[in-house]
Give the backbone structure.
Amino acid sequence: DSGVTQTPKHLITATGQRVTLRCSPRSGDLSVYWYQQSLDQGLQFLIQYYNGEERAKGNILERFSAQQFPDLHSELNLSSLELGDSALYFCASSVAPGQAGGTIYFGEGSWLTVV
Amino acid sequence: DAKTTQPNSMESNEEEPVHLPCNHSTISGTDYIHWYRQLPSQGPEYVIHGLTSNVNNRMASLAIAEDRKSSTLILHRATLRDAAVYYCILRESQRGNMLTFGGGTRLMVKP
C-alpha cells in the first residue's frame, strides 16, 4: 500500500459525458501528479500540482482539467469524453517537487472505460 | 529530453540473479537515475535510485557506470513476484522533477 488513495477504482461512462477522478496523497506529501496509461501510449504525464498551485504540465488535453484543494487532495476532471479517453489514470504524490532524488508514490489507479 | 534505452523484454529463471540494463548517454550532471516497476494491474512502484555511486536496498542494487551513461538494475534472486515491467527513468531537475516513462523492460520469470 503506497498510501495514495484513488477513487473510483472503476468507472464506465458514455461518450460526451464528464467524470471526476479523486486522489488523496500520502500523509505529508504536498505534490500531486496525474498520469494516463493507455494500451497504445504507455504512461503519459498529465499535470503536477504543488501545495495547490500548478507546477508542471504535460500532455493534458484541453478537455481535461485538474486542481489541488487546500486539504491537498486533488481532482482530475475529464469532459466531453471520447472512446480514446479510456485508460488507467494514476495519481502519484511526493513530499515536494524540487527533489530529483526523492520518491514518487503511485496509487492503484482509476480505470475509466468510455462506451 | 534526456532519454533512456532499455530492452523490450528479458527472461530469467526463478532464484537466479537478473541484470536489467539501461542506456542514458545524454544524461546531465544533475539527473538522478530512478527505477520503477509496474506489476500487472497495479500502479508503478519505486525500486531504487542513484546519482553517481552504486546503491543497494532491500529490493535491488543499482550499478552506475563511471561515466553515468548507463546503469544496471540487479535483482539478486528473481522470484515469480518480480515479473513486471521495469522502467529506467532520468529524473530531471530542470523539468519539475516529474517522471517521464519510456517503454520499459518486461521481465518474465520462469519457475
The mean pLDDT of chain A is 93. The radius of gyration of chain A is 13 Å.
